Amino acid sequence: MSLAPLFFILAALLLLGLLAYAVRPIEKRALSPDSVFEALSEPRHSFRLPQILQSLQPSDTEFLERRGMRLLRQRIRSERTQIAIRYLNQLESDYETLLEASRILAVMSPEIVAMQEFERLRLSVRFAQNCFLMRLRLRAGFAPWKGFATISDMATTMSFRMESATSQIALQSALAADSASFMEERGGGR
Amino acid sequence: MSALLTLRNVFWAATSLGEIVLIGYLIHRKLARSHFWLFFYLCCTVAQSALGVVTYSVFDFKSPATRNIIWGSQAVVITMRFLAACEMARRILARYAGIWAFAQRVLLIVAAGVLLYTAVFSDKHLSMMILTVDRGAELAIASFIVGLLLFARYYRLEISPLDRALSIGFSLYSCFYVINDSLLEKWMEPYSGFWGFMDVITFLACLFHLDPGGSLVCSGPGIRQPQERAFRPLRSTIP
After folding, report:
1. Are B160 and B212 in contact (CB under 8 A)?
2. What does the alpha-carbon distance between residue B172 and residue A183 come to, in Å, rounded to a whole number?
3. A155, A91 in Cβ contact below 8 A?
4. Percent of chain A with pLDDT over 70
5. In Å, what is the CA distance from A59 to each residue of A52, A87, A109, A143, B202?
6. What burial class does residue A78 get, using C-beta atoms within 10 Å of its C-beta: 0-12 exposed, 13-18 middle, 19+ buried?
7. Which of B102, B135, B171 is nearest residue A15 as measured by Cβ atoms?
8. Alpha carbons B218 and B61: distance in angstroms, whole number
9. What is the rounded distance in angstroms from the CA atom of residue B96 to the CA atom of residue B111?
10. Where are the beta strands (DSSP E) in chain B?
11. Interface touch B139/A12, C-beta < 8 Å
12. What is the sign, positive or negative, of the torsion defined by CA atoms of B65, B67, B69, B72?
């Protein structure tokens, strides 16, 4: 028995589902261009990474163990793990803002940003995957150093890309304005 | 059975009338130039209906000439629909040069990928080839348009109400067409008359669908072909 008709029906149903999703009204309010530039200039949570990593080092609380305050050490380590998870949430939130900014820049940009969209998509998938694994690691009590550094690097890379794209757009706008005024001057001189 | 055929012919006439109204609307609103491929596509669908009537009155249902003419015209209509979808994508995305450059590649790769996938997964029987190609093309068009709408949603781009209605109508029709064809191939061959009627109903439902605001929208997706009749000569070649 051929399964081809079933495959086609499933594919069509999947497309109908995607169509329903695509035409649904967007609930989340889009950022205005001003708020995007504001968000880009704000300090990133990734700058606090060294402190977070330091707080998660076992050596940072070893002296409590040596002094016989084992329970206190456990409590502090558990609290610090919670703080690290919250920090991870903030990193994700930063990344979301950068993604939102990238969307707006792609709409504003003539060609620079959108050509990197595939790369950004790949980066976003990796970022989400790393965050998920990091949460599991933190909860299981494994050493999170390498993973945290990767996530933070990704957020920083994204931020630099956004800044560079913004500068290029600004440069192009300035050049376009210059050439327009030059043409205007030439036209006026005749 | 004859009541069903009469009803189907009434609906067939109603859809042809709907297409003519849509052509008139495009001319009246001076949209024929900006929506050139859509306009051309609608003209082709009306011409296809007329051709169908002439063909069935001149040739026998099962004759090879009927099959060639009907399926040949169907190939033209599907090509026109794909061009109308490409034109719509250009209208929606071309204002954003960067996104457009990216989307062109992605959408064409998606459409070509679906066609290829269809070819790999389909029945390789020669007699089913026309149905397979037809269905694959519909699936590719639906993927292209749904991809376009997903792009527009991701970048929160504005879509004019006409383009929105068109894209929904086109994709709904293509998806239901694929489902109808697949049902026919697998289970409904003995009920091909009923299937032909459902095809006309699908077309009408997609031609006039409700927009999210609740108002009735005319979108002109695809002509329902005289499929039930066209299918007979095709099926006659299946051993």
Report:
1. no
2. 49
3. yes
4. 66
5. 14, 21, 49, 12, 70
6. exposed
7. B171
8. 32
9. 21
10. 208-210, 216-218
11. yes
12. negative
**Single-letter residue type at A7:** F
Chain A: residues touching B (Cβ < 8 Å): 2, 4-9, 11-13, 15-16, 18-19, 21-23, 25-26, 30, 103, 106-107, 109-115, 117-118
CA-CA distances (angstroms) from residue A115 to A11, B54, B106?
A: 29, 51, 11
ipTM of the modeled complex: 0.75
State how far the Cα of B235 lies from the Cα of B239, in Å rounded to an integer.
8
Predicted TM-score (pTM) of this structure:
0.69
Give the Cα separation of B5 and B54 in Å (integer): 18
Residue type, A10: L
Taking the C-alpha atoms of residue A112 and residue A114, their distance in angstroms, rounded to an integer, is 6
Cα dist from A13 to A6, B164, B174, B192, B234, whole Å? 10, 20, 11, 22, 26
* Top mean-pLDDT range of A52-66, A80-94, B79-93: B79-93
Please tell me the distance from the alpha carbon of residue A102 to that of residue A36, in angstroms, as a whole number. 9
* Block residue for tokens 């060294």: A50
Residues β-bridged to residue B210: B216
pLDDT, tens digit, 9 for 90 and up, residues A14-67: 999 999 999 888 766 566 667 666 766 777 676 677 777 777 777 777 787 778
Q: What are phi and psi of B212, to 5 degrees?
A: -60, -25
Residue B180: name the closest of B194, B166, B169, B161 by CA. Answer: B194
Q: Would you state the pLDDT for residue A28?
A: 62
CA B133 to chain A, closest CA, distance in angstroms equals: 12
CA distance B183 to A8: 10
- As given in the structure block, the two tokens for residue A108 are 């504003």
Using a CB-CB cut-off of 8 Å, the residues of chain A touching B123 are: 2, 4
Q: Residue B195 phi/psi, 5° resolution?
A: -60, -45
Q: Specify the DSSP element, H or E, that contains B12.
A: helix B2-28
Separation CA B111–CA B105 (nearest Å)? 10
